[in-house]
Design goal:
five-stranded parallel beta sheet; 15 helices; Aconitase, domain 3; alpha/beta; 2 domains
Length: 418
């Protein structure tokens, strides 16, 4: 079986195959300040109770603090939902992006995770089945704890070779270029020696961007890297870890398609407007002048990303014509960055540090683009108008390239001191 088939078969207690339609009990359900009000409205049309207040997570992250009356009213309605049903796990504005909150606190291997946000696929990095749902579906899930799903076919992507110059973000962009954006209702299973050696932060990046390839989810087999992460970050004990290890599902070559990507000679990658699949090696884009750089988002706002950016920004200044915006993915990331002196490095360099959350990624606030402006971003989407004006231009890159480019004033992979 593919990994997705294995995880769903284990959960259902019977063998399922790609194409089967099954009803599944949800282990964890999440909505944010943008999707909770809509799910709440749908729920109220079905029932006046939730299935399990301890399996629902609500996070305020998309517009924090709210900067419009509409955003404030959405959060007011979401808070009404939390209070009405005594939801146990509520993360107020400033605690972080919903996907990072789930990474730090909730998701485990073999879980079925339903989220009211398309990038819920991030959590496939734990060896879980995680995917996004619309508001009506989330309302039904909140009411019943169940949903139906068609078991997706799997595309296996083997990433091989060795290259210390490129990051998981470069690899994700390369995969997006190779697969395109029309892999509708497929699972993308990542493997190969590069993924095996990759830390969890890198794996989160790969799975996060599966939705940009048109997929239903991304997934990676749970292994020692997964369990070390859970021990270190979640403080899980040996008994808990060993129990998870006994339940691990392995992938077994039942793929609809299989490709191999060798990164040995790969350059850093840049996604050009207006698609995450419109990707070129940096040598073909280098020198393009930029107005704004954004380092953050559910793709690249973790501590390892901030450390990477700080390596290049330390003792240097952001170019006089560039706005550099840095947003930690969570309060925990923010505090850790403070303790390690990263925030001081960023502020001295001339960056603007904003409240943990989604920030300018969705074009709501904290860095909206004007007509004709060019932004280099570590986020996951560069659709037309995504970050503000539909006359602006968004390029996607790694934290390393973002930091270097902020210093130079143009897209680049090496610092050019004046």
């Amino acid at each position: 079986m593919s990994l997705v088939e294995g995880v769903l078969s284990k959960k259902l207690g019977q063998k399922v195959e790609a194409g089967d339609t099954v009803e599944v009990k949800v282990d964890l359900a999440m909505t944010h300040d943008g999707s909770t009000p809509l799910a709440y409205k749908a729920l109220r049309e079905m029932a006046d109770s939730v299935w399990d207040r301890e399996k629902i997570v609500v996070v305020f992250d998309h517009n924090v603090p709210p900067n419009t009356v509409k955003a404030a009213n959405m959060q007011k309605m979401a808070l009404e939902f939390v209070k009405r049903y005594n939801i146990k796990y509520f993360h107020r504005g400033g605690e972080g992006i919903c996907h990072q909150i789930l990474i730090e606190n909730y998701v485990l291997p073999n879980m079925f995770v339903a989220g009211g946000d398309s990038h819920t696929c991030t959590h496939g990095a734990f060896g879980a089945f995680a995917t996004g749902f619309g508001a009506t579906d989330m309302g039904y899930i909140y009411a019943t704890g169940e949903t139906w799903i068609k078991v997706p076919k799997t595309i296996r992507v083997n990433i091989v070779g060795k290259n210390n110059r490129v990051s998981a973000k470069d690899i994700a962009l390369k995969v997006c270029k190779e697969l395109g954006t029309r892999n509708i209702y497929k699972a993308i299973e990542f493997g190969g020696n590069v993924v095996k050696d990759m830390d969890m932060d890198g794996r989160f990046v790969l799975c996060n961007m599966a939705i940009e390839m048109g997929a239903k989810t991304g997934i990676i087999e749970a292994d020692e890297k997964t369990f070390e992460f859970l021990k270190k970050e979640r403080k899980m004990n040996e008994e808990e870890i060993n129990k998870l290890k006994r339940e691990v599902v392995k992938s077994d070559n039942n793929y609809d398609k299989e490709i191999e990507i060798d990164i040995t000679d790969m350059e850093e990658q840049i996604a050009l407007p207006h698609s995450p699949a419109n990707v070129k090696p940096i040598s073909e884009v280098e020198g393009l002048e930029i107005d704004q750089v954004f380092i953050g988002s559910c793709t690249n706002g973790r501590l390892s990303d901030l450390k990477e950016a700080a390596k290049y920004l330390k003792g240097r200044k952001v170019h006089k014509d560039v706005k550099l915006i840095i947003i930690p993915a969570s309060k925990k990331v923010f505090i850790d960055a403070l303790r390690e002196g990263l925030i001081e490095i960023f502020v001295k360099a001339g960056a603007m540090i904003c409240c943990p959350g989604c920030g300018p990624c969705l074009g709501a606030h904290q860095g909206v683009l004007g007509d004709g402006e060019v932004c280099l971003s570590t986020s996951n989407r560069n659709f037309k108008g995504r970050m503000g004006s539909d006359k602006s231009y968004i390029y996607l890159c790694s934290p390393k390239v973002a930091a270097i480019s902020a210093i130079n004033g143009y897209i680049s992979s090496d610092i050019h001191e004046s």
